[in-house]
Amino acid sequence: MSETDFYFDSSNPHRRKPFSQLFSQLLPRTSQLDIYVGYMGEPSLQFLHEITLSYPELHLNIVAGMPGSEGISHSQLKQARELDSVLVESGRGGVFVTPRVPYHGKVYIFDIQTDVDGQMDRKAYIGSNNLNSILQKYERTFEVGVLFHKAPEEILEHLARDIWVARESISKTSIPILVQDTSPLETYNEYARAISVTEIFKILQSKHTHEFNIPLKTTSKSNLNVFNGKGRTSNINVQKRRWYEVELIVNKAITTQPGYPRGETFTVLTDDGWTFDCTTNGSNYKNLRSSGDLGTLGAWIKGRLMESGVLSQGDLITDQTLRDYGRYDLTMRYHPDEEIWTFDLSV
Q: What is the per-residue pLDDT across 66-81, written as a single tens digit (0 to 9) for each?
């Protein structure tokens, strides 16, 4: 085995060696994971939160070098502090920032227990990968990095001397709050894409033949709050659903009307310019969901609520949330000339 291996993204899927693949391979054998990055996104923080539940013996430290000086969104801060609380209370690490050191490096240290006399095998990955790169479907940018099968002492000394000593707990540090100006749907770019203003206007102005108002139900463990319901069963344990997941339960009085998409996969355009596929299934086709990933539809709906300031990352959606937002339903219309449905959540 060579002392180093390169990992990279590629436009050719047969040549790709993404960091997310390496991360998933090393994780089950890792006893301690120390992450030093510039930025940390909500999806990756949520993923790490799930990992702490799936791997209760894992020790995890995350040091983000830029939020302390540049700021962070309210929802990112909430997610980071929730993860920090879990790690601190279980004595397994924490989430940190470096307010006085604008650190922009990307280093991942994996401590792996070997079968030889209980010795520790310490590997280091250094590259261009911020925290979202650990996600399996993160392909917004191409990244490259190198895995050192034996972590260089120079790197370990640098982290200890220059970065670790400058850390402060994210739960005990005052951090500037940024206004969120991007949609959570950007994380689901495998399923959703933004389209031009010209195309949006053309479709929204075209005639529609069917229109349905779908109630947004605030039941505590389904509909808009699927994440709070029964988790998925895996080989490890029951995994909690992701917060963005949504599956709207539509009344039979609506699903039996002429023109309602019954058992179909269909393309939708949102009133703010995103397009993705949805489908209906279940008895009487009552389940309205995004195709491929329940989080796509949820990221759009919850993103709109967060943008308006009535919802924070991780919260339950209640009747009061919708009341504060200003509407209780989603309007869907079919535009036959464009062969597309439009979803409207405008106030």
A: 998 888 877 788 889 9
